[in-house]
Amino acid sequence: MKSLILYGLAHCSTCQKAQADLEQNGWTVDFRDVQKQPLSDAERARLAEEFGDKIVNRASLTWRAMSEDERAADSVAMMGAKPSVMKRPAIVADNLRLLGWTANVKRALNVPV
Q1: Contact in structure between 23 and 111 (CB atoms under 8 Å)
Q2: Which of 31, 41, 44, 109 would you call most buried, defined as having the most Cβ atoms within 10 angstroms of its Cβ?
Q3: Distances in Å between the alpha carbon of 84 and those of 75, 87, 95?
Q4: What is the 3-state secondary structure (H, E, C) of the chain?
Q5: Is there a contact between 22 and 109 (Cβ–Cβ < 8 Å)?
Q6: What is the rounded end-to-end Cα distance, in angstroms, of the chain?
């Protein structure tokens, strides 16, 4: 059985779609709502290391509402203070590290586009 961890927000329609599509295509999804089950410093640091700057969604409403000081924080601290600033979904499957729910992400996981 193929399994992966999907980090996101339960109320995010993209995360909901990704989870449904993945489960329909044979994946066991361990969904982690980063708002309801906050990530530890180590987990946030690992995501920041694996995804780099892309882990912060600079197009989000959360980002746009942040002050310059908040935006200047490192991504690990930023995701701790405001989990919804994280780009989502962030998917960890074996050696794959994928962000978003794009055609390329779907292809990488053998989900029909």
Answers
A1: no
A2: 44
A3: 12, 8, 25
A4: CEEEEEEECCCCHHHHHHHHHHHHCCEEEEEEECCCCCCCHHHHHHHHHHHHHHHECCCCHHHHHCCHHHHHCCHHHHHHHCHHHECCCEEEECCEEEECCCHHHHHHCCCCC
A5: yes
A6: 21
Could you tell me if 75 and 56 are in contact, meaning their C-beta atoms sit under 8 angstroms apart? yes
C-beta separation of 19 from 29 below 8 A:
yes
CA-CA distances (angstroms) from residue 24 to 13, 33, 48, 72, 90? 16, 20, 29, 40, 19
pLDDT in tens, the chain (113 residues): 699 999 999 999 999 999 999 999 999 999 999 999 999 999 999 999 999 999 999 999 999 999 999 999 999 999 999 999 999 999 999 999 999 999 999 999 999 99
Is-contact 23 108, C-beta < 8 A?
no
Query: Could you tell me if 101 and 87 are in contact, meaning their C-beta atoms sit under 8 angstroms apart?
Result: no
